[in-house]
Write a structure and sequence with these properties.
The structure is a single chain. By secondary structure, this protein is of the alpha/beta class. It contains 17 helices and seven strands. Strand 3, helix 5 and strand 4 form a beta-alpha-beta unit. The termini are far apart. The mean pLDDT is 89.
Length: 348
């Protein structure tokens, strides 16, 4: 009982090996919600929710009400299940936190308690949880399971996609499944919706890449990378078409500009690395790319070979200037963005 992976957690739930304490967090909030739901369904029979399920909102957390619920005996069942959503330990008093930690250290064997986080980051945007949140997490890990649901890579997600599609009576290749994961930004919440749509459309036929491209909208990160690549290659027709696609989705011009900048940085890093004899893995490590977006570095290495380092540097300069203009001028931001793209396409 300590830090567990989602795969081992899935196996334990399926086998009915239930802990008394759980702490679910991470960027993949769809997975957090999915596993919380699976545990609730495993411990509380359908129809018994009124008797054996108690749910608490962390923003309005009452320690006395919480303890009373956790100490209640289950009604005609093995467990009473209590869930606590988005309890930020930094926002509760030290005395309350200590009382909470003391209580969960001796939680009744008939209680299953789940702390889960879907609306804020317990790490505060950093690598590790903040001080008080880590204190609560460590207390849970001593008697239960803690799982960080990080985004998975396209390759990792492809297996899950293939299994889900196969159960529907259809099929999808590993390559196409990985492509689907990639254009969905490895976000399982988005993937769930897109897979359901693809299954409904395809029936019993194979889901091909062409079907994916027909039905699944590309996320801004994916389209902006193609746009940055088109700019790097001086492909004016493709660049303007992709910008029009993003504009038609009514995406904020500043968001588009930031997305293009991020992907242009990927291309610039890859170009410099190639000139220095560095490998994609070194760039991934040196700049701390998470595993789920490592493919951005691989793609950048693949697509930047014919681009000029001078041109990429000029593009970065133009994007920086545009950022300042968008924040200081009254000119329409889409006009400024279009101007920036035309300038980048025209630069050498």
């Amino acid at each position: 009982m300590a830090i567990v992976t989602d795969s081992s957690l899935r196996a334990a739930i399926k086998a009915g090996t239930i802990d008394n304490l759980y702490y679910f967090y991470g960027k993949d909030i769809a997975a957090v919600e999915k596993f919380k739901k699976a545990l609730v369904e495993k411990t509380v029979k359908k129809g018994d929710e009124a008797c054996n399920l108690r749910s608490f909102d962390g923003e309005n957390f009452d320690i006395n009400e919480f303890i009373d619920a956790c100490e209640a005996l289950p009604m005609f069942a093995e467990y009473v299940c209590c869930t606590v959503s988005n309890l930020n330990a930094e926002n509760i008093g030290t005395g309350t936190l200590n009382r909470l930690i003391e209580f969960i250290g001796d939680i009744p064997d008939t209680t299953v308690l789940i702390f889960y986080y879907t609306s804020f980051d317990v790490t505060g945007g950093k690598k590790y949880p903040t001080t008080k949140n880590k204190k609560l997490m460590d207390a849970v890990s001593k008697k239960g399971s803690v799982c960080n649901f990080a985004y998975k890579t396209p390759d990792m997600l492809s297996k899950d996609i293939m299994q889900k599609v196969s159960k529907s009576g259809s099929s999808i290749s590993k390559q196409t499944a990985a492509y689907l994961a990639q254009i969905c930004g490895c976000d399982t919440m988005i993937l769930e919706n897109e897979i359901s749509k693809l299954i409904a459309y395809s029936g019993n036929i194979e889901i091909t890449k062409e079907i994916v491209e027909l039905l699944c909208p590309r996320q801004i990160e994916t389209t902006s990378f193609d746009l940055a690549r088109a700019i790097a290659r001086h492909d004016k027709t493709l660049a303007m078409r992709l910008l029009n696609d993003l504009s038609s989705e009514r995406i904020d011009p500043i968001s588009i500009m930031y997305a293009i900048t991020g992907n242009m940085v990927d291309l610039y890093r890859a170009k410099v690395a190639l000139g220095s004899g560095k490998a994609p893995s070194e760039v991934t490590s040196d700049f701390g790319y998470p595993a789920n977006i490592k493919f951005r570095v691989d793609n950048a290495f693949r697509d930047v070979r014919t681009s000029s380092l001078g041109h990429l540097r000029k593009c970065m300069q133009i994007l920086t200037e545009t950022d300042v203009k968008m924040k200081s001028l009254k000119t329409d931001n889409m006009t400024l963005l279009e101007e920036a793209i035309i300038r980048m396409l025209s630069s050498k």
